[in-house]
Amino acid sequence: MSNQPDIIVLFSGGLDSILAAKVLERQGLKVRCLHFITPFFGSAKAVPYWRNVYNLDIVSQDVGEDFANMLRQRPEHGFGKVMNPCVDCKILLLRKARIYMESVGAKGLATGEVLGQRPMSQRRDTLHLIMRDAGVSGTLLRPLCATHLPLTQMEESGLVDRTKLLSFSGRGRRDQLDLAAELGITEIPTPGGGCRLTEKENARRYWTVLTLLPCASNEDFTLANLGRQFWHHEDGAHYWLCIGRNGADNDKLAAAVQPDDMLLRLRDLAGPMALARHGASWPRHVLESAAAQAASYAPKAVASGGPVAVRVRQGQAEGESLLDLEVKPERLEQFWGETPWDDIKVVIKAEARERFEAALQSKQKPTQADGE
Predict the structure, then answer these.
(1) Across-strand partners of 275?
(2) Which residues of 203-220 are buried (b: 16+ CB within 10 A; e: fewer)?
(3) Looking at residues 142-167, what average pLDDT do you find?
(4) Which residues contact 308 (CB under 8 A, 6 or more apart)?
(5) Of 242, 264, 372, nearest to 321 (Cα)?
(6) What's the distance, CA 312 to chain centroid?
């Protein structure tokens, strides 16, 4: 039997994408689910679990750097209520899915989108815009709300039976839950989408990285997810410090280190690991303040009542440390801090307004989408 799929379903791990895949499978189609991974959503580790629980063919693809590039250039269709570029995200993922579809010889794409479910990216006009700009007009099927939408090539060719597609719409989940029960799906994912860009606490970190680093990368946004995050600003330079909260964070920080980063850890006591991004070029006094800040999160270091030794190592190099710093563990709140979300929101809105006004002056008509 050929393993070539008929249809590629964009798979988030949410209930709608599960149902979309199952609706097509019960028509006898070979479905392959494509799960995208970025620092903001997606989980390669979850894929084996989903395969087992939902009995689906699922593959994953990392598109983090493409997503980071989209953020650097700013999403053409703007952000939602927080920092979520939902329309541009869908366009990016569908473009990637189309390339994958063509590479494996599948005949079409499908998503679990539901008309009217989300105010920014699932309005009728926006669904059409996304399909057009992603270059998937006629190729993309939305099985859960298909009867509200025009025929696709897959339906016209007879590959998909339109009479067995659905007419879901709106923000409720009753229809989805009833269908899940009908299909025998007992493990229902929690609603919400799972995108960290919709959460203020995370968006506050991402915006700071995006705007203060010269060229924020996929790896930088991934680092922004880890532990406690602090910034120091001095003489026009910006210094970024990440401090682990637990052993898992410490392991991830150690794995995330780049050649010009500095890893900081107590030499003689248990405590958190800290990562100074591009720390190899930091002035000595900034590095010392970072060591004191990191040591302040180690109860044994604080309880010692005096200076402690923090060992500093550059990059992944093993062996002799670059240097040991003797510092007093203390929270340097006037030196290391983070910008509150309310302040960042003002900047995001101001930047969006400037882009919109510039577009008007050049007689362009940018999409003004409602927040999601």
Answers:
(1) 242, 263
(2) bbbbbbbbeebeebbbeb
(3) 95
(4) 266, 267, 268, 269, 295, 298, 301, 326, 327, 328, 329
(5) 264
(6) 31
Over residues 340-357, the pLDDT tens digits come to 999 999 999 999 899 888
More confident position, 352 or 63: 63
Residue 229 token pair: 């995050």
**DSSP character for 35?**
E
* pLDDT band of 3, cuts 50, 70, 90: confident
If you search the block for the tokens 């798979």, which residue do you land on?
11
Amino acid identity of residue 298, one-letter, is: A
Q: With 0-12 CB in 10 A as exposed, 13-18 as middle and 19+ as buried, what is 84? A: buried
pTM summary value: 0.91
DSSP letter assigned to residue 41: S
Sequence-ordered list of residues with C-beta below 8 angstroms from that of 110, at least 6 positions apart, any chain:
7, 8, 9, 10, 20, 21, 24, 31, 140, 141, 142, 143
Pick the closest to residue 176 from 151, 141, 127, 143 (CA basis). 143
The helix (run of H) or strand (run of E) holding residue 201 is helix 200-212
Closest CA to 243 of 233, 254, 234: 254
Q: What is the pLDDT of residues 100-113, one digit of tens each?
A: 999 999 999 999 99
Using one digit for the tens of pLDDT, what is the confidence trace for 157-183?
999 999 999 999 988 889 999 999 999
How far lies 331's CA from each of 10, 295, 327, in Å?
Answer: 45, 9, 12
